[in-house]
Amino acid sequence: MKNIHTVIFLFFFIILSVNASAQTIQSSSWSVNQSLAAYSLDKNNGERTMTIEVKFEKAFTKKPQIFLSVTQIDSDKESNVRYNVEAISISRDGFTIKVRTWADSKLFSISGYWTAFNP
Fold first, then answer.
1. 0.90 cut: is pTM over it?
2. Residue 119: what pLDDT?
3. Under a CB-based contact definition with an 8 Å cutoff, are residues 110 and 99 in contact?
């Protein structure tokens, strides 16, 4: 009888562990460029921003940590390359990527990857 309880306990523990680990990390790519409506990172001077809404395929059980990377930038060669990429409005269901440039910088496109995880 003790062995049956042990087997049942291990079965539920494994199932719960698999379910918990299945949602501890999610990732994908992101990109903004001139083909998007209201794209302004390549125009004018001063601070300009674009945002990208990210919805997780499956909600996390608690608010995740977000890691962002930039893998590609196409910019104007006549000015300095200035940019900032940050995750804002983070929740269990998703977050927003905010891409920003300023001064006379002109970004024609910028892209990268995001990873969301629970430590």
1. no
2. 83
3. yes
